[in-house]
Specification:
186 residues; tt1808, chain A; six-stranded mixed sheet; globular
Length: 186
């Protein structure tokens, strides 16, 4: 960012209308309207698929805190992923008083939309890699695709991509099967 450009502040973020999602990425304020229903549905269903085995431990290893749209303060950036997961040893309790989380998540899922895909694939991927997020999933309801990445010393290594109604067992949640087809249903 050129020195002559003012860096966005937390107050700039707070001034954004509530029907928009606001983030500060590399010093720049980014705002988008809340996602359309197919994108929210995909995120909600995925979170539901992971909730019982990984948060509650029913049929899986448990020991994860899974949060929808948390406000992550990662270095100088304020990022709002669609879903973030923290191993419980990193976040034993979810604080009741603050909106902000200063811990780096172990896993992040971004649901790609026409309005967010470019930023999700560039600035946000860079920030997540820099801050040590272990795994990144990119979920695209338009193409019915899941892409999975692993952080390898600050660089993203692609684990794989699956489409349509495939059933996957993929890191860091390989202990459970996820039927992708349910993510695209109405």
């Amino acid at each position: 960012m050129p020195d002559s450009v003012r860096r966005a502040t937390y107050q700039d973020l707070l001034d954004v209308p509530h029907h928009h999602c606001a983030e500060i990425l590399k010093g720049v304020l980014h705002t988008n309207p809340r996602p359309a229903l197919p994108y929210r549905n995909a995120a909600s269903v995925l979170a539901g698929e992971l909730y019982l085995p990984f948060r509650r431990g029913l049929g899986g290893p448990g020991k994860w805190a899974l949060l929808d749209e948390p406000e992550l303060h990662l270095g100088p950036d304020i990022v709002v992923p669609d879903i973030a997961g923290f191993r419980r040893e990193k976040m034993p309790r979810i604080a009741m008083k603050d909106a902000a989380i200063f811990n780096t998540p172990d896993w992040v899922c971004e649901v790609l939309s026409p309005a967010t895909e470019a930023i999700d694939r560039s600035d946000k991927m860079d920030i997540y890699a820099r801050e040590g997020v272990g795994h990144l999933w990119l979920l695209d309801p338009r193409t019915q695709t899941l892409e999975v990445y692993r952080n390898d010393a600050g660089l993203w290594a692609r684990v794989g991509a699956w489409r349509g109604s495939a059933t996957v067992q993929v890191e860091p949640f390989e202990a459970a099967e996820i039927e992708l087809g349910v993510l695209w249903e109405d």
